Structure formats: C-alpha cells, structure tokens
C-alpha cells in the first residue's frame, strides 16, 4: 500500500519530463531523442506518449513523425495566463528593448534549477543569434538570464548549486566552468547585469538583468542576444542600462499583479 504513492509520483515525474523535452522546440522531438533525453526505455516512452496523445496533451506530426505539444496544452496555458499576466506586463518592455537596440529580446522565468524562455521579440538588426527561443531551458548560471537570476539568489542557494556544478550544468559545464561562473556571478552583482561572452555558442553573446518578485527574490529575467561586435565597449554599458531600466519597470508591475507574489 505504501508503494502506490511512490509509483504514482514516478509516473507523474516521467510524464512531466517528456512534456518538458517535447516543449523545448516548436518542431517537437522524435522518439529516439525522447528516449535518449528522458533515460527511459523505448517501450515505456512509447506507452506514455500514446497515453498523452489520447488525452490531447501531445500530437505526432504526420510529416516528420516528431512528437509535439497538443491542443490541451494550449488550453491549459490560456487559463494559466489569466493568473500570470506575464505577456501583458513584459511584452512592452521587450518591444522597447528590441526597437532601441535592434537586438532580439527575451523574457525568461525561473523554474526550479532552470530558466525557461517564455517570450521573444525580434530586433531589426539583420544578423541574429538563434540560441534562444520560447521553451528553451538552461541550468541556472548558464547563459545570461540564468546568470542574472543566480547572481542575486541567497548565498547558500548559490553554493548548493556550485557544489554539484558539473552535474548541474551538464553539457554546458565545459565552457561554464565553476571558476568562470563564480567570476561571472560576482561581476553581475557589481554591474547589475550579466554578460555571456559566447559561452553557449561561439560568437553569440547575451546580456541579462534579473526581475524580482514581491519578496525581492529574482524570479524572472530580461535578456538580449546578438553577435559579438554589438555587445562590447560603450555599447555594452548602454545595453546593460536599458536592461536594468526595463527589468525594474517589470519588477514594479509584477509585484502589483496577483501572479507577482
């Protein structure tokens, strides 16, 4: 009898993992990728995918065979958005950043030990970085949004992540070494904004600023991405100032909304 809750929790965890993996990319994921990323057996993944599809939570693309998010997810998201009016609050700031800088602007949320990109606004500059888009997840401390958030977490939470850094950062650990991350966190706290000098993808730079909730905790982040020459020198300082101004504006608005607590 005592094993039933554990089994049930295990199923929920597996389902949530598959949904997160599928939701990382608009084009979805093939079965082989889902098996590899989830660490589950092929029969188990196939069984769970079929069950999710029957409930409308997933679909299988008839052309590519990829598994993609289903219509029920859209409905759930629409209902959730009424409680968390993030797009209404953050979108104007993203548009201002994209218009003033010409770079692509993003709004990400902290989910556990990760950041998830929620919103994107493309800038006018013709050369863009495609590292980030809606649904992309990074470990905290990786990329500019995750660095901006982690830098302003309580010290004990930072140290907990850093203690198991290689496991936490995963495939990003080689470029984001513990020593380099510690240095970046310190620089972010001093400047007020983070800079990622092409550590996720060579030549693709990012900058971020944390957005705070009512308790003063970093819960979201604004970021800009683009090519290296546009993120250096005096322009970097200008981009940082704009990011912090818009982050402060969103922090103020979010703390007044029901979803900002």
From TrEMBL:
<keyword id="KW-0804">Transcription</keyword>
<dbReference type="InterPro" id="IPR036388">
    <property type="entry name" value="WH-like_DNA-bd_sf"/>
</dbReference>
<protein>
    <submittedName>
        <fullName>DNA-binding IclR family transcriptional regulator</fullName>
    </submittedName>
</protein>
<feature type="domain" description="HTH iclR-type">
    <location>
        <begin position="9"/>
        <end position="71"/>
    </location>
</feature>
<feature type="domain" description="IclR-ED">
    <location>
        <begin position="72"/>
        <end position="256"/>
    </location>
</feature>
<dbReference type="InterPro" id="IPR014757">
    <property type="entry name" value="Tscrpt_reg_IclR_C"/>
</dbReference>
<keyword id="KW-0805">Transcription regulation</keyword>
<dbReference type="InterPro" id="IPR036390">
    <property type="entry name" value="WH_DNA-bd_sf"/>
</dbReference>
<dbReference type="InterPro" id="IPR005471">
    <property type="entry name" value="Tscrpt_reg_IclR_N"/>
</dbReference>
<dbReference type="GO" id="GO:0003677">
    <property type="term" value="F:DNA binding"/>
</dbReference>
<keyword id="KW-0238">DNA-binding</keyword>
<dbReference type="Pfam" id="PF01614">
    <property type="entry name" value="IclR_C"/>
</dbReference>
<dbReference type="InterPro" id="IPR050707">
    <property type="entry name" value="HTH_MetabolicPath_Reg"/>
</dbReference>
<dbReference type="InterPro" id="IPR029016">
    <property type="entry name" value="GAF-like_dom_sf"/>
</dbReference>
<dbReference type="Pfam" id="PF09339">
    <property type="entry name" value="HTH_IclR"/>
</dbReference>
